[in-house]
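Schema walk-through. Below, the input block comes first and the output block second. Nothing else is stored per chain. Lengths vary across the set, and this one has 80 residues.
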Amino acid sequence: MKSIELSNLKEQMLLTEQEALAVQYNGKLLGYFYPVKTKDQAEVDALWERLEKAVERVMAETGLDEETLVEVLAPRKSKQ
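--- output ---
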């Protein structure tokens, strides 16, 4: 992890690729900056396609329709 001064944060954020930064002001630690890892759009699309196929397979194997599958995976809390 690289330590930087607050005044250099903007510059270092642009220069860093995936390295975390310890941000300091007058030698005192303010906090940490962790860059967000971005994925290639094609990779994201492929992941959505895999999810869709998995959901379709579960529905085919269980006989559940989409609405019932959603309810099973994320049941609503009953109102009391």
